[in-house]
Amino acid sequence: MKKLINNPDDFVRESIEGMALAHPELIKINLEPNFIYRADAPVANKVAIVSGGGSGHEPLHGGYVGMGMLDAACPGEVFTSPTPDQMLAAAKVVNSGAGVLNIVKNYSGDVMNFELAAELALSEGIKIANILIDDDVAVKDSLYTQGRRGVGTTVLAEKICGAAAEQGYNLKQLADLCRKVNLNGRSMGMALTSCTPPAKGSPMFELGENEIEFGIGIHGEPGRKRLPLVSADEITEMLARSILEDTGYTRNLQEWDEEKEEWVELEITDPNLEPGDRVLAFVNSMGGTPLSELYIVYRKLAQICSQQNIHIVRSLVGAYITSLEMQGCSITLLKLDEELLKLWDAPVKTPALRWGI
Amino acid sequence: MKKLINNPDDFVRESIEGMALAHPELIKINLEPNFIYRADAPVANKVAIVSGGGSGHEPLHGGYVGMGMLDAACPGEVFTSPTPDQMLAAAKVVNSGAGVLNIVKNYSGDVMNFELAAELALSEGIKIANILIDDDVAVKDSLYTQGRRGVGTTVLAEKICGAAAEQGYNLKQLADLCRKVNLNGRSMGMALTSCTPPAKGSPMFELGENEIEFGIGIHGEPGRKRLPLVSADEITEMLARSILEDTGYTRNLQEWDEEKEEWVELEITDPNLEPGDRVLAFVNSMGGTPLSELYIVYRKLAQICSQQNIHIVRSLVGAYITSLEMQGCSITLLKLDEELLKLWDAPVKTPALRWGI
Questions:
Q1: Chain A residues closer than 8 Å to B235 by CB
Q2: In degrees to the nearest 10, what's the CA dihedral of B143, B149, B152, B158?
Q3: Which one of B3, B292, B296, B331 makes the best mutation probe of the A interface by having the most chain A beta carbons within 10 Å?
């Protein structure tokens, strides 16, 4: 294992300490339990947006704490869910009284712990709602999930809901908005190489010299299939087709309804991507793939969307939700309406995403 | 070789085509000769800032084209200098009449070609000045250079000179400013792994399982020495010490003096870093090292600077000058005065660096 680390047990703590030292104007951290929060928290009269998950996906989530995005992020150990005490402590620090929206990637551990944290928060009088992100079209169930995994759309939901919270959306409106982003976002990823969690010390999985994992999860968990390595254009075509041809996924979600003050079962179905739709196209590095290659993927994706009469009106290209040093990429297409477009364009000021301010 | 590419011969063209498709509001490209330029070029009454160099260091330089930074970037083939015809064609497109500043990393091919391009531009009536960046403290001469190599300070010089150009600095003032940034910046890097240029198809060099290359160049060229892999804190200590203890490097530079209209020999010496100095601390990924590890390096660097009474007042942490998928990092410390600080903070809007707008 070749990494810039000290003791693997200190990996997460030292990394977030470094973040806090590098961005003191934007963020603060709390240790034991670990969370990263806005330096100016709580922001008066604003609903707080909180997310979290296993570490190893940086800049997700800690890099997105700041004005116009998250109020707090709870990092677990690498590829391990954070605990309810982290989530509860973060909620208490960032809650202004307007409530807390938890954006939760659909992994069993994250879902269970955020549900428990929400119940604890509620019992302490904090208004709270949990919204799941389950946008990965690769597999229906996986090693760590019931239902689809939450991947690239998470970044977009955090940005869009963060902007809406700044603009005064209340908790119910934010929960509805987050659900809408999730339904309109679809992702698909692939890996050229594996990755090595520091505490494990060995690769998550093995790939042959000419093999790729198509439909990879962000923890190195298996996707749809293994394939021989082909060209960037062919890989992009396969990723894009998986997204464009995905239709009508229906899931049963259990979400906290802060008005009814109870968990409710929701059956919701994705709208299809149709010719004429406007989208945000997000080409993401799994960590170790350089920007030059991402733009080669983006080039082909733009050609495919153009042929399908899907209009890319916004783009995001870079390493935004990663799997340590894994080489590979994912594509996310988010169908946009006027509301989402306007919120995407709103100012944001975080360590990893910044514009307009 | 596992990469997201098509034909290696098309790597650079397809990558910059993807960039142009992803950022149409910011940049345009010209093919044959290849260069990337501001969508709104030429900007009236503004000196144009141009840079360039071999590809494989993305986002450098193309990702820094836009308001407040570069007017054009000339990408060569991977790890290969761009040609004078690219530089001349770019200069013609972005020159508003106020002249062109070329920021040139000190590699023999880049230096020779930018000198030739400047002479050609001058013969066509374009005011032009070339300023070299030679900030790498690792080695005095190297495989591709006479004198020190140009590395991390290049990014900072492009940002700072770009801001100054927006604020109306003339060509002479910009040349002096760029030289000042170079003198006040020092860098040192290391590699955990090698990298593979697409056309070569095999790694630039081999490193043992527990070996690192200390003082690596951004083309994989050898640095000071090979060492056994040690902890992030020890590596950071070695990198930081190399910079902090570097004193009084004197170089003879041949630079184009646009007032005298001739190449002049300059003998200039770096100012030392002293206790009480304020610096910008830049921790850079060589491409394949994830952000989580960079923050572990930043953490130790902040501790070391604090012990030395060097005040870090600005930071930059991420993959800004890379060597394809190489794992490793570099540290740059730039001594700041009020002028540099103000210019660093000015708005910038490029594909890879954006704030304030």
A1: 4
A2: -120
A3: B292
Residue A257 has pLDDT above 90, yes or no: no
**Phi, psi of B42, rounded to the nearest 5 degrees:** -80, 150
Where do the domains of chain B lie? 12-184+250-270+344-355, 187-245+273-337
Closest Cβ opposite residue B18 in set A17, A299, A351:
A299
Radius of gyration of chain B (CA): 19
Helices B291-307, B232-244: axis angle to 10 degrees equals 50
ipTM above 0.90, yes or no: yes
Tokens 């009084």, located at residue: B248
Beta strands in A27-133 (DSSP E): 27-30, 35-38, 48-55, 72-78, 100-105, 128-133
Chain B interface, best mutation among A196, A202, A292, by max B CB count within 10 A = A292
Minimal-distance CA residue of chain A relative to B291: A58
Residues of B in contact with A283 (CB under 8 A): 22
Chain B positions in Cβ-Cβ contact with residue A319 (cut-off 8 Å): 290-291, 319
Sorted by sequence, the CB contacts under 8 Å of residue A84 that are 6+ apart come out as A113, A114, A116, A117, A120
A299: chain B residues, CB-CB within 8 Å: 14-15, 17-18, 21
CA angle A291, A294, A296 (to 5 degrees): 115
Report chain B's mean pLDDT, rounded to a whole number: 96
**Chain A residue with the nearest C-alpha to that of B350:** A355
Is the CB of residue A39 less than 8 Å from the CB of residue A27? Answer: yes
| Token pair belonging to B218 | 């951004």
Tell me which CATH code domain A187-245+273-337 carries: 3.30.1180.20
**Residues 6 or more apart whose Cβ sits within 8 Å of residue A234:** none
Q: Choose among B152, B192, B193, B171: nearest CA to B279.
A: B152
Beta strand B128-133 pairing with B100-105: parallel
CB B332 within 8 A of CB B282: yes
Residue A179 to residue B130: CA distance in whole angstroms: 54
Ranges of beta strands (E only) in A215-277 are: 225-228, 250-257, 262-269
pTM, full prediction: 0.98
Peptide bond into B57 cis (omega under 30): no
CB B19 within 8 Å of CB B47:
no
Does the bond joining B203 to the residue before it have cis omega, within 30 degrees of 0? no
Q: What is the mean pLDDT of residues A275-292?
A: 98
Angle of helix A232-244 relative to helix A291-307, nearest 10 degrees, comes to: 50
Q: Which of A188, A189, A172 is nearest to A180 (CA)?
A: A172
Predicted pLDDT at A253: 79
Is B285 in contact with B291 (CB distance < 8 Å)?
yes
| Peptide bond preceding A23 in cis form (omega within 30 of 0) | no
Architecture in CATH of A12-184+250-270+344-355: 3-Layer(aba) Sandwich (3.40)
Residue type, A56: G
Are A5 and B354 inside 8 Å of each other by CB? no
- pLDDT (tens digit, 9 = 90+) per residue, A88-133? 999 999 999 999 999 999 999 999 999 999 999 999 999 999 999 9
Q: How close, in Å, is residue A194 to chain B by CA atoms?
A: 12
Residue A256 token pair: 């906290």
Lowest mean pLDDT among A144-158, A254-268, B17-31, B238-252: A254-268
Q: What Cα–Cα distance (Å) separates residue B23 from each residue in A320, B38, B70?
A: 17, 10, 15
Q: Which of B351, B344, B349, B355 is nearest to B157 (CA)?
A: B344
Q: Per the omega criterion (within 30 degrees of 0), is the bond before B33 cis?
A: yes
Q: Which residue in A2, A58, A355 is closest to B292 by CB distance? A: A58
